[in-house]
Amino acid sequence: MTIHYVDGYKMNALGLSTLLKMGCLCIRESIDINGIKYVVNERLGEGGFSCVDLVEQTSTKKKFALKRITCHSIEDQKIANQEIMYYKKLKHPNIIQLIDACIKGSADIVVQTTSEAYLLLPYYKRGTLHDYLTVRQSSTNYLDIREVLRLFLDICEAVKYLHNYSPEAIAHRDIKVANVCLTDNMDPILMDLGSCTTAKVQICGVQDAQKLQDLAAERCSMTYRAPELFHVESYCVIDQRTDIWSLGCLLYALLYFKSPYDIIYERGDSVNLAVLSGNIFFPDNTPFPQELHDIITFILKVNSAERPFIEDVIDRVTNFKRQFEFAV
Q1: Tell me: the pLDDT tens digits for 3-49?
Q2: Which residues form the signal peptide (predicted)?
Q3: Is the CATH code 3.40.366.10 the one for domain 3-122?
């Protein structure tokens, strides 16, 4: 006998048919993760490789975010497993924590079967920093400088944890306002570890360069992507300072609601050329001091060798914060 789950309750085919005839049935998908059942309430978002649903545990009614990754090949499944591994080993108050995970099915491109990875994560009802900034932008309601500095420094601490991870530094590779959740207390939580990787990568030849460039095009958001990932040199070393570039774009967004290159993209101009030019436009009419603009230009160095490491960024911002508070 087939058992269906309706709003978390078991129901056989006869009961299901009866409710359908009555026209009073709202069927919600039920998912089992390691023996615990959840029902899907709504879709929160979709990306190129995954989607995120709001789910509810049937026994406690507690809500969670469920990331679902469809794997079409063994390689896809390996990437999903790697993401789960990063979630499990990274423990920091400003990095999202994995609650549970499993992979169901078997991915095989030859016989055209897929598997699905389920990653159960905390649900932050405030949404993302992108959501928060979008609402404020609609009324040109700039953040207070103290709030800008608090949010940015907390995000920097999460990045510092990644970059100083032992035994090997980790780069996030997709830092952006849409990948920062906000808690009820407005604390920033860095999320989406699907792009995380070993920070230092030695590129030895055209094939290595093209492979990394293609991967960056897939997994690193264009308007936050570091210049060295747009055109990867055939013989070079890529390191964690790809994240520093993204942090510079994020700090700009904290001031003016969007990355400086979101504006270029929306105009239909070449983000690639704009990034490589090194030119950053700051509004003439601004409530923010020149020192904050100077910090952004200090971070957004096109040549990665001239770009600061995370400790330098934190020191520079902390010093400005100290001076600002003293002046006030």
Answers
A1: 444 444 445 555 555 555 555 556 789 999 999 999 999 999 887 77
A2: none
A3: no
Which CATH superfamily groups domain 129-327? Transferase(Phosphotransferase) domain 1 (1.10.510.10)
pTM for this prediction: 0.89
* 131 contact partners, CB below 8 Å, separation of at least 6: none
Catalytic positions: 174
Would you put residue 278 in left (φ > 0), alpha (ψ -120 to 50) or beta?
left
Joined tokens for residue 241: 């300072």
Q: What residues does each domain of the chain span?
A: 3-122, 129-327
Are the C-beta atoms of residues 40 and 29 closer than 8 Å to each other?
Answer: yes
Structure tokens at 46: 């979709």
